[in-house]
User: What shape does this take?
Amino acid sequence: MPTRTDPSSGAARPAHAIAVLLAAVLWGTTGTVAHFAPAGASPLAIGLATFGIGGLVLAAISLRRVLAVLRRRAHLGWLLAGAVGVVLYPSAYYPSMTLAGVAVGNVVALGSGPIFAALLEWAVDRRRPDARWAIATGVAVVGIVLLSLGGHGGAAADPSAAPVGVGLALLAGFGYALYAFAGARLIAGGASATGAMGALFLTGGLACLAWLAIVGLGPLVSLPGAATVAYLALVPMALAYLLFGYALRALTSSSATTLALAEPVVATLLAVLVVGERPTAVGWTGLAVVAVGIALLAVPAPSRKVTLSRPRVGSGYNQARPEPTHGGASEHDRPGPPHEAPR
Assistant: This one.
């Protein structure tokens, strides 16, 4: 596995690879845990509560840097755009898994995020995607179409609503790409990595909580409901981000991205083994085709640099997640190594 030795980060050790794998496993549990939320709990409320609470926790970790970003008027436009993405992602992601199934919702959101990221780069930066991206995107789109045409099998409570679930998963992928792209622009504008992403999560998290006050908690106002939200906000969101940030201090982003592909594998295995989903032959084919597209996007393209916030697969340029602090802010805060990209 290629690694990087860097004076500011130190040599990569097995612990760094284990940290990425553990983060990917934690991300892969979100759909299954949400599936077992109290009966009648709104998936929208689950998503809003998760990102509302988790966003505040992540912002608190680097509060000084977050406040520095919020004070600069020049950051306002991208801060608001990114906050929209932060709200959009959970608002679409969790309902998508209810309508289309845990495996389908997760894989479609994962596979489409880098596609939308590259389209944003093309539209805003005039950075045209390369041929590899076009091929990978075409492959992923074929897989998504297969999933939309019935690959959900018995995973969807209402098969007629499954295509809507796929559409919501695509919307979630766009939301991820939007807040990640906005974070990259803030970092390029002089903000620290942890400050930029913390400010986005704080602003978007507060908006999520405001919307949650309108939607209502419903059955989440119970011990099982509170436990569900606490796990999703503190473990797959806050803890996993810290683990990934720790890993990026020594691993190359191409290595981290490849290791993070464990996420959709874990999500699919849990959907089948724990939730009891049984994708049809079309579904397995669609999942496999999307996985091939994701793998193609994970191949590093060393000529371009973009920074994103989650260990998703690259848009064609492989954007890197900014490095969260662990136990306090780092004096060597940086956007992270080039080339990698969340959902």
About this structure: Residues 54 and 233 are 4 Å apart (CA to CA).
